[in-house]
Amino acid sequence: QVQLQESGPGLVKPSQTLSLTCTVSGDSISSRTSYWSWIRQHPGRGLEWIGYIYHTGTTYYNPSLRSRLSISVDTAKNQFSLKLNSVTAADTAVYFCVRDGYFGSGSYFPDYWGRGTLVTVSA
Amino acid sequence: ETVLTQSPGTLSLSPGERATLSCRASQTVTSTYVAWFQQKPGQAPRLLIYGASSRAAGIPDRFSGSGSGTDFTLTISRLEPEDFAVYYCLHYGDSLHTFGQGTKLEIK
Which helix (H) or strand (E) segment is B79 a member of? Predict the structure, then answer.
């Protein structure tokens, strides 16, 4: 059974960097049939895809966040991480780490999710 | 970037009724790259449908997806009490994911 667990500070000050790590179990982050994503959900709102990474280090980012965003992978620890710079209150959200599994014909969809972690941006 | 618009925003139905949820794309998309998710309060979303019409593992057959081009539909044939939740469509394209804004399915 694939499991993902987010970890990191629940409170970040404005203008600082939001850093989260996702620890994966039950699957190898080096799998050729998976991408590893971050998705967030603002309180009471819908889902926003942040970006994802392949085990080779190739990344794809949401254009609206690209200038502030970095996603990295640590294959030795079976983890991947998110860094979002210069945060504001608008970055307050539940952050989910997610596995995108391969579903054929070149398509990848989020099939395993962490429980999510609330990050609040406030002084 | 493809924008997905879901309708209605809220759907009020009773258990046993049929639910029809719509997802419209701002441009023609390949159905292979369309999925549907269910999210209950305090939980992570769950993949229901991928490739517009294929059920994910463990999803009851009362859930079905259809559509092509710009119009996609999630149908729940007979609502069970546990089906009342928020539903999102998703498009995977150009190495990006785009979500619709969601439809809340509530008990009438």
Answer: none
CB contact under 8 A, B97 and A49: yes
Q: For chain A, give me the number of helices (H) and strands (E)?
A: 0, 11
Binary contact (A110, B51; C-beta < 8 A)? no
Cα separation, A49 vs A64, whole angstroms: 10
Distances (CA, A) of B77 to A114, B2, B17, B37, B71: 29, 29, 7, 16, 19
pLDDT attached to residue B88:
98
Mean pLDDT by 10 residues, chain A (123 residues): 97 98 96 95 95 93 96 96 98 98 91 98 96
Could you tell me if A92 and A40 are in contact, meaning their C-beta atoms sit under 8 angstroms apart? no
pLDDT for residue A82: 98
pLDDT of the residue at B93: 82
Nearest to A39 by CA among B74, B84, B68, B44: B44
Instruction: Give the span between the Cα atoms of A18 and A38, in whole angstroms.
Output: 13
Chain A nearest C-alpha distance from B23 (Å): 14
Which residues of A sit within 8 Å Cβ distance of B? 37, 39, 46-49, 52, 60, 62-63, 96, 103-111, 113-116
Is A114–B44 a contact, with Cβ atoms under 8 angstroms apart?
yes
